[in-house]
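Quick illustration, no need to memorize.
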Amino acid sequence: MSSNTEPAPLEHNLARGLPAVAAAIFFFAFADALAKWFGQAGYDSVQIVFFRYAFGLIPVAIAIAVSGTAGLRTKHPWLHVLRGLLMFSALALFFRGLKYLPLAEAISVAFSAPLFVTALSWPMLGERVGPYRWLAVVIGFVGALVILQPGTDAFRPEALLILASAVFFALAVLHTRRMSRTETNVAMYTYSTIFAGLATTPFLPFVWVAPQTNHLGLFFTLALIGGTASYLMIVAYRNAPAALNASFEYTALIWAALIGWFYWGEHPGASVWLGSGLIVAAGLVITYRETKTGMVLPKRGR
């Protein structure tokens, strides 16, 4: 097998795949908590994204060392630029919203991304969306409205930042589907890290705060955790069924609730749990239907 092709799929190994996805989801939730802490410590979301991707070049270098440089060849560099811009937008908006919202509530709203993926897959990719998935989209959006509670005193405008983040992440997922026909995983991982990091540079002079020395270690931890989680997701999707992994990602809500309660004393209300239940149910229906087309993708990404 040449070095510029993707590895052949492995036979399912649940003993390896399930611990990998469980650890990945925990690390993602922990990274979200770190990003929330940085926001409340006075760092702008753009600066957090900058450090996330700057230190994230270390796991990228490791990935290149393992897979070789042949997989970095591309005939479509501007597609990678666009993907990097979409990932930057999604992450910057998500981190900004995290600063103001309880962790579990923010992640619950973020799980609306698959709904946007499904709704946009027909106009953007020409994919057929059946009645079951359209019904799931409607139910999921009802769940988002239950959480957001627009028009009431409980409505938090900052939650719209998370919703906008979900839209950008959905666009990135659809763009990834299109690119995966010609581009390798290592190329998309490498170039999205580089271009998403570069996208922060025009804004940094306006938001830069000199980081404390001990905070640099935490920024490195954020990048290391994010990179490790991304690698573990690759392991999970190569060793366990995609539908099982995608369903398991919703355990992030449990970790978010526990971390939010332990560190910030957060107590998600009934509307958050009810809305989350509707979004999770909708996501599971979409996951089940997409297994028949082989299009199941991770619900969240970094």
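The chain has 14 helices and no strands.
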